[in-house]
Write a structure and sequence with these properties.
Largest sheet: 5 strands, antiparallel
Radius of gyration: 21 Å
Helix content: 25-40%
Number of strands: 7
Order of helices and strands: EEHEEHHHEEEHHHH
Structural class: alpha+beta
Length: 243
């Protein structure tokens, strides 16, 4: 919670008591990022255009990473950063940089991504919830049972915008977690189960589907534990959008 003090040219935070000057011209970039991290819930990734029209990652605030080591991605373009996502390179890989370059200042684009996590609701996941077979990762035990009381649907609201003056792009991620039991109470258990079951094979492996599918499917559809139902109906618009 904050308010603008135009007389003092400051921006006080009414919750923490911190006070920020509006004129930040003499503030170091690292300190500016720290100021943002104290006032914004989203993770932020700042990409500045180079002479070739590519937007490499130049700065970030990454407090709730999902297996994403931002430091290792510095200097990489959005296309390279998103490369491990199955199907992305062949479908839209070449167009990502062109799209970012064509965005007008103030334009906002939003997508939703999702994954499942199986050890509580904590947002910080250094190991991530995804699986990368191309990096020689393997499952330790494909039939390992899951503690469904600790299972959550994790949704990421990902927003891309371009700043009108600097022409830099800002990629932000807001994270939400919902317990499986709540997903069922909201009437979305069948929809989530269908979305899981109809994922393309590579995307299913990317989201670790073989590791948890039978227990999760049975729970969401209220079937005997370990069962796997045939697809009940075509996935509609209300199902989670696949990324």
């Amino acid at each position: 919670m904050s308010e603008l003090d135009s007389k003092e040219q400051t921006f006080p935070d009414l919750v923490t008591g911190a006070n920020y000057e509006l004129d930040q011209i003499r503030t170091e970039p690292r300190q500016m990022l720290e100021f943002l991290s104290e006032n914004v819930e989203e993770d932020l990734y700042l990409m500045c255009p180079d002479q070739e029209g590519v937007f490499p990652l130049q700065g970030y605030i990454s407090c709730f990473t999902n297996g994403f080591l931002a430091k290792a991605k510095l200097g990489l373009s959005m296309r390279d950063i998103r490369g491990p996502v199955p199907g992305l390179e062949e479908n839209i890989g070449k167009g990502i940089d062109r799209f970012m370059k064509s965005m007008r200042g103030g334009t906002i684009v939003q997508i939703m991504g999702w994954s499942l996590q199986f050890s509580g609701p904590d947002l910080l996941r250094t190991g991530g919830n995804n699986f990368y077979p191309d990096l020689d990762q393997t499952f330790s035990d494909l039939s390992e049972p899951q503690d469904l009381s600790q299972c959550y649907l994790r949704v990421e609201r990902q927003t891309l915008t371009r700043l009108p003056e600097s022409k830099a792009s800002v990629f932000s991620i807001r994270h939400y977690v919902t317990a499986f039991e709540e997903v069922k109470k909201e009437g979305n258990g069948e929809h989530l189960a269908d979305a899981i079951q109809t994922m393309p094979e590579k995307l299913g492996y990317y989201k670790r589907r073989p590791f948890w599918q039978r227990d999760v499917d049975a729970f969401l559809r209220e079937l005997p534990r370990g069962g796997l139902a045939p697809l009940a109906h075509t996935v509609g618009d209300e199902s989670p959008k696949q990324e």
